[in-house]
Automatic annotation (TrEMBL):
SUPFAM superfamilies found in the cross-reference section: NAD(P)-binding Rossmann-fold domains
Localization: Cytoplasm
Molecular function GO labels: sepiapterin reductase (NADP+) activity
Keywords: Cytoplasm, NADP, Oxidoreductase
InterPro entries linked to this entry: Biopterin_syn/organic_redct, NAD(P)-bd_dom_sf, SDR_fam
Location (main, coarse): cytoplasm
GO cellular component: cytoplasm
Pfam families noted in UniProt: adh_short (PF00106)
GO biological process: tetrahydrobiopterin biosynthetic process
Domain of life of the organism encoding this protein: Eukaryota
Name the UniProt record assigns to this protein: Sepiapterin reductase
Species classification: Eukaryota, Metazoa, Ecdysozoa, Nematoda, Enoplea
Length: 254
């Protein structure tokens, strides 16, 4: 990798896949002077995640302390991003070569009943505000604020096979993931210079998967926790200027 600095925003960066990506970036990808901004709604978890990242050792030697880590407490369901805008503006300058946003934040919603038993608009509005509307608004805010500062913009969307293959018991999760991928295909058409990666890591043992296995109404989906049906659902590439192959290999697109 080059020595060019990167500014990276990671939503859902306080735990799970988002935090693991942040950790891998510090270990393997980001050069000294780069900066990570973790975005999530739990301030305590954000602080703990930032502290852990500062102690991560880079694979090339040296501690991650030469990578600056900041946090921003945002409730995506409220769709208000004044504080995030301020944080980005304070964090970035023309010394950064690359700007990356990683969209890892997301929720399951109500998986205790089939999707045909959702009757209240507020349940749908709340879910899509968090998982699609905020995704679009945060994405576009990042692109606007970094457009004339960095030389390269990269969007990484943590997606799922559920975006193209509906899975029983996932409720609104599948249509929201599909909407995100469709939106990014439109971004690619409108702004072909922006690099986009829809990354599907496959089934990962996170708090969200544990929640799904506990709460879903679908008995087969409950078996995800035992691994009996995991092999039925493989991570697959999606369309556009994208690659999909774990682990996250940023050197292929950087």
């Amino acid at each position: 990798m080059s020595n060019e600095k990167t500014f990276c925003v990671i939503t859902g960066g306080s735990r799970g896949i988002g935090f693991e990506i942040a950790k891998q970036m510090v270990e393997n990808y980001l050069t000294p002077g780069s900066k990570i901004l973790l975005v999530a709604k739990n301030q305590q978890r954000l602080n703990e995640a930032a502290s852990k990242l500062k102690n991560v050792r880079r694979s090339s030697g040296g501690a991650g302390v030469d990578i600056s880590v900041d946090v921003c407490n945002v409730d995506l369901g409220e769709c208000r991003f004044t504080e995030l805008e301020k944080k980005i503006q304070e964090s970035i300058d023309h010394t950064f070569h690359r700007g990356i946003i990683v969209h890892s934040a997301g929720t399951l919603g109500n998986v205790e009943k089939p999707i045909t038993e959702i009757f209240h608009r507020k349940d749908i509005d709340q879910y899509f505000n968090i998982n699609f509307v905020s995704f679009v608004l945060v994405n576009n805010l990042f692109l606007k604020l970094t457009k004339n500062i960095v030389r390269q913009q990269l969007i990484i969307n943590i997606t799922s096979l559920a975006a193209i293959q509906s899975i029983a018991g996932f409720g609104l999760y599948s249509p929201a993931k599909a909407a995100r991928e469709s939106f990014l295909r439109s971004v690619l058409v409108d702004q072909p210079d922006i690099k986009i990666l829809n990354y599907s890591p496959g089934m990962v043992d996170t708090d969200m998967v544990s929640e799904l296995c506990r709460q879903t109404w679908n008995e087969e989906t409950k078996n995800f926790s035992t691994g009996k049906v995991r092999n039925r659902y493989k991570a697959t590439p999606t369309l556009g200027r994208e690659i999909s192959a774990p682990p996250l290999m940023l050197e292929h697109i950087g």
